[in-house]
From TrEMBL:
It holds the Pfam family Peripla_BP_6. Belongs to the leucine-binding protein family. This is Branched-chain amino acid transport system substrate-binding protein. Keywords: Signal. The keyword Signal applies. It comes from Streptomyces mirabilis. Residues 31-343 form the Leucine-binding protein domain.
Length: 350
């Protein structure tokens, strides 16, 4: 996610009408790095829980880290809103693919669409627009990647495509000679990768070297400029999906984009940045709604009170309507398909 606390600076600078409550809202802010690692994520969650001035958390970026944090936050009644997690199990429960939906933790929310939307969008684009008929599926055995791959398999089959093979690899793998050979020999015209960019880039490069014309596709985990750099020139045409749209293309994000650029921050805001802004705004709106008297006091059980208030937020944000359904998912499940062109992800034309 681009921007980190820089995004929060932008949110607070635009938090008009809060008066003396602005300093109290600052209690929400504490920057910790989970390094995208479950063990580190659990440790950081424990630190946040122990700080009684923290009443809400924005993050994390990584799904595996989120899983490691969820119970810790739940036990402490501490609300978290992720701007980027997309694995369905985080809100729908581990048996969602079998049709049993049970929200695991009512303190967890997200502002981004989940993978039940991403995978069908990719499958539809590949089958209808790119005329791809045979897919080979690879995942990295992680919660995010495995769930995304399974969702794609189902969606591509429903479009009329054929899954010609699948395999699972360790997340740290960078040599995909065996998997590329399997995909090519199976006659795949697209390889779908459930995982993230640091492995997807090398996979794409090796795939295109072995069989030019075969596309690499994935979810928001590969939506990174680092992917394009690693994958190389042969990766033009690869596709990915990501929740929402680039903030530059949304009239609702005009002020956010202008203010962010004017501040001169080095990191790109990206869709994750827009969703982080909306997540922070949701916490601020919920928090300030608890101050029902002029003294600025907060109910004693402020963490639980905030959770209930977040569940009921409803406003127009940077990325669109901000609100949450009964499972903690964003009410807006928008998703965009991107195509790599000239080393840059660009919105694919329908």
């Amino acid at each position: 996610m681009g921007g980190g606390l820089e995004l929060i600076d932008v949110v607070l600078s635009n938090a008009v009408g809060l008066g003396g409550l602005l300093l109290a809202v600052a209690n929400l802010i504490s920057a910790l790095d989970d390094k995208g690692d479950p063990v580190s994520g659990h440790r950081k969650a424990t630190e946040l829980v122990a700080d009684r001035s923290v009443v809400g958390v924005v993050g994390p970026l990584n799904t595996s880290a989120a899983q490691a944090m969820q119970k810790t936050f739940y036990d402490a009644h501490l609300t978290q809103i992720s701007p980027s997690n997309s694995a369905p199990a985080l809100t729908l429960g581990k048996d969602w693919q079998q049709g049993t939906v049970v929200r695991p933790y009512n303190t967890y929310f997200r502002t981004m669409a989940n993978d039940t939307v991403q995978a069908p969008a990719a499958a539809r684009y590949l089958y209808v627009k790119s005329k791809r008929r045979k897919a080979f599926v690879i995942d990295d055995k992680q919660t995010y990647g495995a769930a995304l791959a399974q969702s794609f398999k189902k969606a591509f089959g429903e479009e009329g495509g054929i899954i010609v093979g699948e395999t699972h690899v360790d997340a740290g793998r960078r040599d995909f000679a065996t998997q590329v050979s399997q995909a090519v020999n199976a006659g795949a015209d697209v390889v779908y990768y459930g995982g993230v960019y640091d492995a997807a880039g090398p996979l794409s490069k090796q795939l295109h070297a072995a069989k030019p014309g075969v596309l690499l596709a994935g979810g928001d985990g590969i939506f990174s400029y680092a992917y394009a750099t690693t994958a190389g020139d042969g990766a033009d045409g690869d596709i990915c999906t990501a929740g929402g749209a680039m903030p530059d293309s949304l009239p609702s994000a005009d002020t956010f984009v202008k203010d962010y650029r004017a501040a001169g921050y080095s990191a790109s805001y990206s869709p994750y940045g827009g969703y982080a802004y909306d997540a922070t705004s949701a916490l601020i709106q919920a928090y300030t709604s608890l101050h029902v008297d002029p003294s600025g006091t907060v109910p004693s059980a402020q963490r639980e009170s905030l959770r209930a208030a977040v569940q009921n937020v409803d406003f127009d944000g940077v990325m669109g309507k901000v609100g949450f359904d009964a499972n903690g998912d964003a009410v807006s499940q928008a998703v965009t398909v991107y195509r790599l062109s000239g080393g840059t992800w660009k919105e694919a034309k329908a």
